[in-house]
Design goal:
The protein has 6 helices and no strands. The chain is mainly alpha-helical and 127 residues long. The chain has one domain. The protein is globular and about 45 Å long. The mean pLDDT is 90.
Length: 127
């Protein structure tokens, strides 16, 4: 269960960056490799938890939380953008994603921003 939970959280974080910062530029190789890097990290974390035999306690959740934090920072500072600045660098400079960026991000992922799910996602962002 921990493997699936961590994999789903990684996928959600990756998709959130893709939607919130839609000006990815031409990072085809990056976007082709990163899902496999994340999947390898998730499997590696699962193996580490099995090797350490830590059970279902707080240490297991702490390891997962630390891995998720590493994924957030890794994606935030390595995702290529047309502006040349990583998403977390843009965030630090005050550029926050808004509803227009979310609409563009969903359109780049070929999802309907006006559909039932897309509208809910867009509504999460400030105007």
């Amino acid at each position: 269960m921990a493997l699936i939970r961590t994999a789903v959280l990684c996928a959600l974080i990756y998709c959130a960056y893709l939607v919130a910062f839609p000006d990815w530029g031409d990072g085809r190789v990056y976007h082709g490799i990163v899902p496999f890097v994340l999947a390898g990290g998730v499997v590696g974390l699962a193996f580490l938890q099995k090797i350490l035999d830590i059970g279902e306690g707080a240490l297991k959740l702490a390891l997962e939380a630390a891995f998720i934090a590493v994924v957030v920072v890794f994606l935030g500072y390595t995702m290529p953008q047309k502006s040349g600045k990583a998403p977390l660098s843009q965030w630090a400079e005050g550029r926050r994603p808004d509803r227009d960026a979310a609409r563009r991000g969903l359109e780049r992922l070929h999802a309907d921003p006006n559909g039932p799910v897309g509208a809910r996602i867009v509504a999460l962002f400030p105007k």
